[in-house]
Amino acid sequence: MSETPKFTVIDRRKIKADEEQENQQHPASQPVAASTPPEPGSGPQLVVNESRRETRPEAASAAAHETASGDASDAASAAEPGAGEGLPPAPTAQESHAQKVAYDASAQRLEDLVRAQNPAMGAQPPVGFEHLVQQFYVSAMIQMGAGAQEGERPRVDILGARATIDLLGVLAEKTKGNLTESEERALETVLFEVRMSFLELTNMISMQAMQPPPPPPQGKR
């Protein structure tokens, strides 16, 4: 049986400090050897084999909390006491603000570039809570076979659909009392629709599983 993929959370601030220390030890006038291993990628890294060799010793010391994906029970276990032990410290308010300013500036440069190449395109509207709910809705419906071309057999990922619907349920639970009337109505409507579609699909699958197999074709006389 294949191992469940796990994620390794890496403190990017620690890696940045390590890079600055290495830059001081290796000035620009001294070229670094070509065999130097590449820096680890940004964000979580998918670890398939836990016994693999890390490219940096710092990455091994920063590896902390491992979470399995694809199962709603894993999301629930993250809320248990001690689930956050070993995670890197939360960024300070100053770090978060500086990163937000840099992100907004980078996003604006990207939008200016796209609009320069497509003058007819207007400014993109800001992303709101309704966009998040709509994204979950579209993902769940596609996983349940919606959007298939005419004459094409729908591809159904029923387990993936269940996980997406459960995420919507978590979102509804965690945002209870913090939404506007329109946001709450949109979330409740979408959650009702995807759950109803899931019930109809699972009932159809159950009925097909209960039907006896067709008799084998009889040979020609």
Task: Based on the model shown, name its key terms.
elongated, 221 residues, 51% helix, single chain, mainly alpha, two-stranded antiparallel sheet
Class inferred from helices and paired strands = mainly alpha
- In the predicted model, the low-confidence regions spanning at least 5 consecutive residues are 31-38, 40-79
Helix fraction by DSSP (H/I, runs of at least 4)? 40-55%
Number of helices: 7
- The radius of gyration over CA amounts to 25 Å
**SS elements, strand count:** 2
* Count of all domains: 2
Strand and helix order: EHEHHHHHH
Beta-strand percentage range: under 5%
N- and C-termini, Cα separation: 47 Å
